[in-house]
């Protein structure tokens, strides 16, 4: 696919790449996720104040820079290359995109906090293993000027770090989207925090008569469903770009290792069968990159066109992530899965990416559904 970044987009990529090379070490980030902090808040503030990437794709009316999907792709790919665990995709892409698209006073206020680096927002939508986020049993009932939320949400990624939640709940027999400040120590909230296999933070959450403000309701019915569907597609496209960045790093490290590692008195790279394997890895990465770009430039298309491009990308990237990750570990031998080598951490992330915002199988089924002519 013939595509070139603009001068501004190139500067964005170069600036972020340089920042991460100087200030984001893999060892430091992995140490942080295993301690009380569970992330690096100073890096997040630097993203906002020094680099401006938290507001780069948000509207200027809420303190952003008015960038679009391509800027999101550029940022996500660089973050994936450095294996950044801070919650960019969920907070900025998914929550920021959803809130700015709705544009209510409350939504705009939270979006401004996102751009400034003062808010971490998690989407609490899933309730079971189903990929259908509109199938909701959590309820919201009016009680005077407030809402009472009752129900549970499963594996809410970034919830332990979150200052706000966006929650799906049935309100007046219709799907509703709510945003409100989140305190997992509140009496009406029971949260079971989890560190995932790829070093992300998540929670299973139960709400029992949780009181939230009356203006927390963002949208209901078809408006809520459409906003949620778009946000999830935007998140999936960003995750695809992140995976491409991770795969490029994995491939580069594997090629370099094969040049240094000796076997039978010769470097691994001199063995034809292994060279062919690495060429196959390169082909998978390039196909994934092209699919990611196509999904990115289709995000502003009609919903069906957008969904088809995103699902095609998710399937292509999921297949590539599996192939590249597994082969990289195999070419590194048993060392590939150790904590000491970066390759093991990237492999875990590439494995998890295949299931975020819908599994590879789910997106394949959706693509087939969207491309099959009616009988």
Description:
With 375 residues, this protein is α+β, with helices and mostly antiparallel strands. It has three domains: 7-119, Orthogonal Bundle (Butyryl-Coa Dehydrogenase, subunit A, domain 1); 123-220, Beta Barrel (Butyryl-CoA Dehydrogenase, subunit A, domain 2); 223-371, Butyryl-CoA Dehydrogenase, subunit A, domain 3 (Up-down Bundle), CATH 1.20.140. It has eleven helices and ten strands. The chain has helices spanning 7-23, 26-33, 41-51, 69-81, 88-102, 105-116, 221-260, 272-297, 303-332, 342-353, 360-371; strands at residues 121-124, 139-143, 146-157, 164-171, 174-181, 189-195, 201-213, 217-220, 262-263, 266-267. The strands form two sheets. Strands 1, 2, 3, 4, 5, 6, 7 and 8 form an eight-stranded mixed beta sheet that branches. Strand 9 (262-263) and strand 10 form a beta hairpin. Helix 1 packs parallel to helix 4 (69-81), helix 7 runs parallel beside helix 9 and helix 7 (221-260) runs antiparallel to helix 10. The two termini are 33 Å apart.
Features:
alpha+beta; Butyryl-CoA Dehydrogenase, subunit A, domain 2; 3 domains; 11 helices; Butyryl-CoA Dehydrogenase, subunit A, domain 3; Butyryl-Coa Dehydrogenase, subunit A, domain 1; 375 residues
List the helices and strands and how they pair.
Layout (H helix, E strand, L loop, with lengths): L6 H17 L2 H8 L7 H11 L17 H13 L6 H15 L2 H12 L4 E4 L14 E5 L2 E12 L6 E8 L2 E8 L7 E7 L5 E13 L3 E4 H40 L1 E2 L2 E2 L4 H26 L5 H30 L9 H12 L6 H12 L4
């Amino acid at each position: 696919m013939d595509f070139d970044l603009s001068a501004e987009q190139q500067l964005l990529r170069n600036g972020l790449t340089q920042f991460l090379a100087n200030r984001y070490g893999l060892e430091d980030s992995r140490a942080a996720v295993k301690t009380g902090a569970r992330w690096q808040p100073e890096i997040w503030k630097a993203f906002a104040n020094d680099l401006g990437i938290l507001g780069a794709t948000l509207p200027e009316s809420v303190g952003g820079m008015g960038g679009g999907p391509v800027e999101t792709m550029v940022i996500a790919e660089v973050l994936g290359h450095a294996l950044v665990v801070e919650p960019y995709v969920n907070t900025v892409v998914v929550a920021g995109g959803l809130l700015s698209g709705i544009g209510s006073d409350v939504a705009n206020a939270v979006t401004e906090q996102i751009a400034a680096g003062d808010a971490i927002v998690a989407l609490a939508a899933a309730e079971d293993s189903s990929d259908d986020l509109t199938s909701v049993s959590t309820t919201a009932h009016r009680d005077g000027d407030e809402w009472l939320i009752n129900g549970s949400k499963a594996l809410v990624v970034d919830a332990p770090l979150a200052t706000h939640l966006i929650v799906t709940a049935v309100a007046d027999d219709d799907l509703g989207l709510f945003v409100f400040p989140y305190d997992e120590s509140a009496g009406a909230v029971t949260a079971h925090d989890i560190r995932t296999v790829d070093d992300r933070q998540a929670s299973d959450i139960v709400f029992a008569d949780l009181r939230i403000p009356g203006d927390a309701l963002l949208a209901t019915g078809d408006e809520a469903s459409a906003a949620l569907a778009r946000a999830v597609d935007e998140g999936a496209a960003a995750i695809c770009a992140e995976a491409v960045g991770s795969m490029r790093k994995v491939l580069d490290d594997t090629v370099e290792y094969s040049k240094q590692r000796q076997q039978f008195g010769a470097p691994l790279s001199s063995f034809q069968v292994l060279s062919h394997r690495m060429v196959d890895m390169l082909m998978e990465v390039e196909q994934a990159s092209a699919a990611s770009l196509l999904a990115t430039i289709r995000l502003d298309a009609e919903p069906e066109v957008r969904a088809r491009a995103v699902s095609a990308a998710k399937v292509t990237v999921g297949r590539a992530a599996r192939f590249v990750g597994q082969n990289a570990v195999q070419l590194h031998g048993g060392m590939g899965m150790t904590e000491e080598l970066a390759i093991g951490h990237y492999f875990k992330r590439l494995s998890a990416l295949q299931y975020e915002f819908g599994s590879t199988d789910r997106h394949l089924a959706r693509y087939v559904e969207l491309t099959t002519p009616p009988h």
